[in-house]
Design brief:
The two termini are 28 Å apart. The longest helix is centred in the last third of the chain and has 28 residues, at 290-317. Helix 4 runs parallel beside helix 7 and helix 5 packs parallel to helix 6 (195-206). The protein is 29% helix and 16% strand. An eleven-stranded mixed sheet has the order 2-1-4-3-5-6-7-8-11-9-10, with helices on both faces. The chain has one domain (3-360): 3-Layer(aba) Sandwich (Rossmann fold), CATH 3.40.50. It has helices spanning 6-9, 46-59, 98-103, 126-138, 157-180, 195-206, 290-317, 330-335, and strands at residues 78-83, 86-93, 112-116, 142-147, 188-193, 213-217, 240-244, 265-269, 323-326, 343-345, 356-360. The protein contains eight helices and eleven strands. By secondary structure, it is α/β, with parallel strands linked by helices. Bound molecules: calcium ion (CA). The site of calcium ion (CA) has 9 residues, from helix 6.
Length: 371
């Protein structure tokens, strides 16, 4: 889970129920991932509490200062290598240690994929593992996970935001080190989910070697509302930057992803904010306890955010492409007036010639791509 997990951390017990708070979520439905409230009497006022905890803290850049970063960030950041020779057990890499690199299964001439997970996640989580396995299935590559789970732990999201800078710089240093040891610079591809997107963005701006491609998977927006280009992933960080937006909007709208175009090519599946299959909970069909309502709502929000990763993973080996069309808006796209515009594929097989905003629709469940 990523920022959506903040919802789990703001569960508070109250003696009354603010039922009105959830009324607008009473249409549609949500996927369930089995998360259950600890106690059905728990009362969750997700929105109110999360706004109180996060919005005022984050919105003012000074209160989300990089000074909050962990002073031991370099000791708490790891780089873990998997290849087809070690698809399950990782080999740790150390920046500047050529001996360890030489003893590892790293192949300098192969593509190097570097993936940074999001807040509250780790390299052991489902999305990270499926990302790794999908890349290794597709090609003989060096898959490196940025292991920053000790710096991405809840509950203090702004502290994890501050840790993006040191972790990103270290990741940029790793890129330079690998290239200094003979790695093919043109075969680097960095990816990050949510906060991880800004980590790989910082890596791109830190590395002295120009990175050919960075992919941002629903880059986190809370705490970055006023951030400059140096703090966020944007098009200056690599030769080609592609972004997949799946939960674009403001936290106050219960959305977690960047709502602006920041890459060379920005993809807005289903409009970029709400994804089919992640629709708000149809409470009428669920238990009417508020705890259950809140739990399902939590899943719905995180579901939209995580879909960016789901779409990308499917694009790595999927038989059906995510064909996307350049257009000015989702509304225009749906009218068909952009039908003759430039098209490309969202995800791994994107054309690096793509430029602008791209729209497409997806299915509510795998296979998500519609061709
Ligand atoms: Ca940047």
């Amino acid at each position: 889970m990523d920022i959506g997990n903040i919802l789990n951390w703001v569960i508070i017990r109250e003696s009354t129920v603010d039922d009105l708070h959830f009324k607008k979520e009473r249409n549609g439905r949500s996927e369930s991932n089995g998360v259950k409230p600890n106690n059905e009497d728990d009362v969750v006022q997700y929105s109110l509490v999360s706004y109180l905890l996060v919005v005022p803290w984050c919105y003012h850049a000074d209160l989300c200062s990089e000074a909050l970063a962990d002073p031991f960030a370099s000791l708490k950041t790891g780089f873990l290598l998997w290849t087809r020779r070690n698809p399950v057990l990782f080999q740790p890499l150390l920046i500047g240690n050529a001996a360890i690199l030489a003893l590892s299964n790293y192949v300098p001439s192969n593509p190097t994929i570097i993936y940074a997970h999001g807040w509250t996640e780790s390299f052991r989580d489902d999305l990270s593992i499926r990302m790794r396995d999908s890349f290794l299935q597709r090609e003989d590559c060096n898959f490196i996970a940025v292991d920053w789970q000790l710096l991405a732990m809840p509950p203090l999201y702004p502290k994890s935001v501050a840790n993006v800078r040191p972790v990103g710089i270290l990741t940029g240093n790793l890129v330079d080190f690998l290239i200094s040891q003979g790695a093919n610079r043109l075969r680097f591809h960095l990816l990050g989910f949510s906060l991880g997107a800004h980590i790989v963005g910082r890596a791109g701006s830190t590395a002295t070697n120009r990175i050919p491609r960075i992919t941002g998977l629903d880059p986190a927006f809370p705490c970055f509302e006023k951030a400059g280009a140096d703090r966020i992933l944007e098009r200056s960080d690599a030769t080609f930057v592609d972004i997949i937006h799946t939960n674009a909007g403001f936290l106050i709208e219960k959305r977690l992803g960047f709502p602006f175009s920041i890459g060379h090519a920005d993809f807005w599946p289903n409009g970029g904010s709400i994804q089919p299959g992640c629709d708000p909970v149809n409470i009428a069909t669920q238990s009417t306890t508020v705890g259950n309502i809140a739990s399902l709502f939590v899943q719905a929000v995180a579901c939209n955010h995580r879909r960016a990763v789901e779409y990308f993973i499917e694009s790595i080996n999927g038989a059906i492409p995510f064909t996307a069309t350049q257009c000015n808006s989702y509304a225009e796209f749906n009218t068909g007036v952009c039908a003759n515009n430039f098209r490309t594929f969202m995800g791994l097989p994107v054309s690096t010639l793509a430029n602008g905003n791209f729209y497409l629709n997806t299915n509510p469940r795998p296979p998500f791509a519609q061709g």
